[in-house]
Write a structure and sequence with these properties.
The structure holds 2 protein chains of 2 kinds. Chain A is an all-alpha fold. Chain A contains 3 helices and no strands. Chain A is flat and about 45 Å long. The N and C termini of chain A lie far apart (about 40 Å). The model of chain A has no long low-confidence stretch (mean pLDDT about 85). The N terminus and C terminus of chain B are likely disordered. Chain B starts with 6 loop residues before the first helix and ends in a 7-residue tail after the last helix. Chain B has 30 helices and 2 strands. By secondary structure, chain B is mainly α. Helix content of chain B is about 70%, strand content about 0%. Classes of the chains: A mainly alpha, B mainly alpha.
Chain lengths: ~60, ~775
């Protein structure tokens, strides 16, 4: 039972990162590693910025 | 496509300071961290050590694969079990992956894990982010796989199951996966540059411009024909129109939710969206069951096509967060779910296939589903799943910016394409698990089937197909089972796949009562994939157009300049919309004449991508292994150019666009009021117009592609004579991170991983350059 729960949790985590749900935490990780000036974007700012950048930089989707 | 972020110039300065020659990479190692790569001699020793268990495993895989191919290709029983398709495919993929892609890696590409990837040396936490290889595999797969591999194999099933199966499985190992892998690797070495930029660099102005124009035109055709598949699936289907239409408000809701209510909760909103989607499918059945619902959502194809065109324009100018991004989440979620589910269902249900290996149409060129002889038309009908040029646009650009280590490109690029091929095989199995009589009644144009169950049954039985004797009752009952008014002439592949899938899935979950649900579930996800591709394709094409016009009118290069963006969007939507309307109203049965054009366009793009790769490989000086690229390039060039020439020059009206054009023009000139399948003068004029456009498009495509291929061959010959050429790779930067190359880490990789894990966390993450 424990193994099943663990497997499901692993799958959920995988799906999450597949869809980019961990983008903000990865951004923070990068930000904190890099000695940047000024504060990092908040979660809300980050997601706005991410979506708005896609407006001018579309990603292809195949057939 | 590959628009250079402003960041790049800044990064370039830093790069220049860090610049090191390849030979200096080892000296550039950071002594405070473990090695960024398994030592070459250790890795090779591991690869070459054949333990008895390893030998036994590969002998077993080979034997199983051989038995499966034997069952499919040589045993001529009444039926063949679907499980053999799975074994033949998986065993061949494993062998291709383990041996052939390894040859490509070792001798042609020679990745070096001491070199940092763009995700490391350009890391910005946004576009360039090191991504876990297994996550990126799924990510890349979701970007390349869509409705294409689900549709092509269904249409190609007209010729029997074996030609399609061989092409999908062998084609992917020797061509499709090779293209994806090479393009991804070369783009990664160039900081994630797009195919168009690489073509310009490697082939010069003429070749580069031809590649750009060809890409743009090909995208228009591909988007138009994908849209045509949706229109055909939704025409006169109130249930389908309702449930697919509901995806728009669902996506809008998800977009608002993510923007204003719970930013960043991607999984949460995807699950909510999925539940709403299921409700829309179930609700669609109820709505279509009411009198007003059936009347209100019963739309003819022309209306749906116009709706799609208007929708396409609005969707492409709306901000990404509102519609495109949330639907993309939904689409990815569905994609992974559907494919896992379909694989499970086929393995559990193991349907018996009654379709012959080679059908009566394999040796003829007048099949009702698509016309033309097996060679070359089978090879263009199945593009996605075997070799898809469109992937070159995805494999360059987005994915290379996320790769963690160079060696992972084999797993992600080559392996990702094998996965798509497997989807194509499953689609083929689903489509051929239904009765052949139903298959032909669904996929032949209206002009042949007559549109009623009686006329369709009579026409199918008159074909003289072995073991086919369909009654009107069966056709009517099948339509009733899947909750549709009719299934006659529902061409385009999607409805056939949906019936096949419903047939398999109801044996897996839910029983016959669930068939209507599964049918509309399948229609829904195919429509979802296609709408996402239409949206994204329109946007990408619009930026390419803006960029091109921007060379003459600089104002157009500004992405934020609304009039320019809207004008270019309108041009793009207008272009694919015109082709779509032409297909919808075509008296010859749009998809049946247009689908070959889709395949030719897609394969010509593959030829362009492979040609660029050939030139790059020659410039790298690995002449002995050029055949790895030359073989698929030669094959696809011969196939597409032959197919184009058939379409342009064939005297058979069913095959040649201009022959058909002349036949109808002559009939009009003779004063006839009906000719062939066109029953009115207006329809005859439509045929004359459509065939002229299709013919001219074929001429333009093939000309542009020949220019690109010739330019690439010239560049290749020049490089061979000179013993190599200029390489346009980014300068090598030493890597300071490590990750295993494939799905399962090798022993040596585990040892190195343990060293990295022992390191304190603050030393482990690479210190980014100061911004």
């Amino acid at each position: 039972m424990n193994a099943v729960a663990k497997g499901l949790r692993g799958f959920a985590t995988y799906m999450g990162s597949l869809m980019g749900a961990d983008a903000y935490s990865k951004y923070l990780e990068h930000f904190n590693a890099g000695g940047h000036a000024g504060p990092a974007m908040t979660e809300r700012e980050f997601w706005r910025d991410r979506m708005d950048r896609q407006d001018s930089n579309p990603q292809g989707r195949c057939c | 496509m590959g628009r250079a972020p402003d960041q790049e110039e800044l990064d370039q300065q830093e790069l220049d300071q860090q610049e090191l020659d390849l030979s200096d990479l080892e000296e550039g190692l950071d002594p405070t961290v473990p090695a960024p790569a398994v030592d070459d001699s250790v890795r090779e020793a591991g690869e070459r050590r054949w333990t008895p268990a390893k030998i036994g495993l590969w002998v077993g895989i080979s034997l199983l694969g051989a038995v499966a191919w034997f069952m499919l290709a040589l045993v001529r029983g009444e039926t063949v079990n679907a499980i053999w398709f799975v074994f033949a495919a998986v065993c061949t993929y494993l062998i291709g992956y383990r041996f052939y892609s390894k040859v490509i890696e070792r001798y042609l590409l020679k990745p070096d894990d001491h070199r940092a990837t763009p995700a490391e040396y350009k890391a910005d936490g946004k576009d360039y982010v090191r991504t876990d290889r297994n996550v990126l595999f799924g990510h890349h797969f979701a970007a390349i796989a869509g409705a294409g591999p689900l549709v092509g194999p269904v249409i190609a099933a007209q010729m029997g199951y074996l030609p399609g199966t061989i092409w999908i499985i062998i084609g992917v190992v020797l061509a499709g996966a090779v293209q994806d892998y090479l393009v991804m690797f070369f783009s990664m070495r160039r900081g994630g540059r797009s195919l168009g930029q690489m073509a310009r660099e490697e082939l010069g102005v003429i070749g580069g411009t031809a590649a750009l124009v060809a890409t743009l035109l090909i995208m228009i055709i591909i988007v138009a024909i994908l849209a045509l598949v949706v229109v055909n699936a939704l025409g006169e289907s109130p249930w389908g129109v309702f449930s697919v239409g509901m995806t728009i408000p669902i996506a809008l809701f998800m977009g608002v939710y993510l923007r204003f209510i719970r930013p960043g909760k991607v999984m949460e909103v995807s699950i909510i969206g999925f539940v709403l989607l299921m409700a829309a499918i179930i609700g669609g059945g109820a709505v279509a069951g009411t009198e007003w619902g059936a009347a209100f959502f019963h739309l003819d194809k022309v209306t749906i096509a116009w709706g799609l065109i208007v929708y396409g324009f609005i969707a492409a100018i709306l901000p990404v967060w509102l519609l495109l991004a949330p639907r993309d989440y939904l689409s990815t979620f569905m994609k992974i779910g559907v494919i896992v589910m379909l694989a499970l269902a086929i393995i559990v249900v193991r349907p018996e296939i009654t379709v012959p290996a080679f059908s009566e149409f394999a040796g003829r060129e007048n099949g009702p589903v698509f016309s033309g002889a097996l060679f070359p038309f089978l090879f263009v009908t199945i593009a996605c799943g075997a070799l898809s040029g469109f992937h070159a646009l995805i494999s360059s650009g987005t994915t290379p910016k996320l790769i963690e280590k160079e060696r992972q490109t084999r797993f992600i690029g080559y392996g990702g394409m094998l996965m798509e091929s497997f989807v194509a095989i499953m689609a083929l199995v689903a489509a051929i698990s239904i009765d052949r009589g139903i298959y032909f009644a669904m996929n032949a144009p209206l002009a042949l089937t007559g549109g009623t169950v009686e006329s369709a049954a009579q026409w199918v039985n008159s074909l003289g197909l072995a073991n086919v004797n369909i009654t009107p009752d069966v056709l009517a009952q099948t339509a009733k089972d899947v909750g549709e008014e009719s299934i006659i002439s529902r061409s385009g592949g999607a409805p056939t796949l949906a019936v096949g899938l419903a047939h398999i899935m109801q044996q897996f979950v839910g029983g016959p009562g669930m068939m209507a649900f599964w049918y509309h579930f399948a229609i829904m996800f195919e429509a979802l994939f296609i709408l996402t591709a239409v949206d994204a394709g329109t946007r990408v094409a619009r930026f390419m157009l803006q960029d091109s016009i921007g060379n003459f009118v600089p104002k157009f290069k500004e992405a934020s300049w609304r009039p320019g963006a809207w004008l270019c969007t309108a041009i793009m939507v207008g272009a694919w919309g015109a082709v779509l309307l032409m297909g919808v109203t075509d008296p010859l049965g749009g998809i049946n004449t247009l689908f070959p054009l889709f395949g030719i366009a897609n394969q010509l793009l593959a030829a362009i991508a492979l040609a660029v790769c050939l030139a790059i490989c020659a410039k790298r000086g690995v002449f002995k292994w050029l055949w790895i690229v030359a073989i698929p390039l030669a094959f696809v060039a011969v196939v597409t150019i032959t197919a184009s020439f058939h379409k342009i020059f064939s005297p058979v009206p069913a095959v040649g666009y201009f022959a058909n054009n002349q036949a109808f023009s002559k009939a009009l000139a003779d004063g006839k009021t009906e000719f062939g399948t066109a029953k009115t003068v207006a329809a005859m004029e439509a045929v004359v117009r459509n065939t002229a456009i299709q013919g001219v498009l074929s001429v333009i495509f093939v000309t542009l592609s020949i220019i690109v291929i010739v330019a690439a061959l010239l560049a290749t010959i020049k490089a061979i004579r000179a013993g190599g050429g200029q390489d346009h790779e980014d300068p090598a930067v030493p890597s300071k991170v490590f990750a295993p190359a494939g799905l399962i880490p090798t022993t040596a990789e585990k040892v190195l991983l343990a060293e990295w894990d022992a390191l304190p966390a603050e030393n482990r993450t690479q210190k980014a350059a100061h911004h």
